Amino acid sequence: MKNIVKIAIVLLMISGSVFGQKYITKNGKITFFSDAPSEKIEGHNNQVNTAMDISTGDFVFKVLMKSFEFENALMQEHFNENYVESDKFPNATFKGKVTNLTEINFTKNGKYKAMVEGDLTIHGVTKKVKQTGTFEIKDGKILTNAKFSIAIKDYNIKIPNTVLKNIAENVDITVNVSLDKLK
Question: What's this model's pTM, rounded to 2 decimal places?
């Protein structure tokens, strides 16, 4: 029931005063990659909720941590139970703005550099981030792409000494989202 209320609130916020300026998706993609000396670990999540208002630049992501999939079940179990503690911290979120909004022509097909600033919350810890990515406008859709790194210690994710060489101190995050105009 709580999720239905949350979804209703988000939809009400999204359908605000400038109806034709909102873009959303429920199936964005985020990948993270850990390239440690002993092991390479990759997780994929294809259930990323994203909303953007092109009139204000407001940009939000919500990622259900348990939706990350790994090459084997043990990696997925360790990720959820030992590292990101998905039961305690079920979501990662980003709330921010596109800061160079005037440089992006949302009505014309093409690729545009996008600068985004905001608050990234992972494992219950919120940090200010500033990233550059690409918006490709293609036939009324907004295709977003960004790649950046985060230090897992910045988000209080503890790695036991026994597996320290298996997980990198910094993980690469890749975001690919196709946003459709809210109808």
Answer: 0.85
Cβ 130 vs Cβ 117: under 8 Å: yes
How does pLDDT run across 160-174, given as a tens digit for each residue? Answer: 777 777 888 999 999
In degrees rounded to 5, what are phi and psi of residue 71? Answer: -70, -25
Q: What whole-number distance in Å separates Cα of residue 34 and Cα of residue 149?
A: 10
SS (H, E, C) 98-130: ECCHHHCCCCCCEEEEEEEEEEEEECCEEEEEE
Q: Return the SS3 of 1.
A: coil
pLDDT in tens, 130-167: 999 999 999 999 999 999 999 999 999 988 777 777 88
Q: What span, in angstroms and rounded, lies between the C-alpha atoms of 179 and 115?
A: 17
Can you list the domains of the chain with their CATH numbers? 2-181 (2.40.128.110)
- Say how far apart CA 93 and CA 80 lie, in whole Å: 16
Q: In this structure, which amino acid lies at residue 1?
A: M
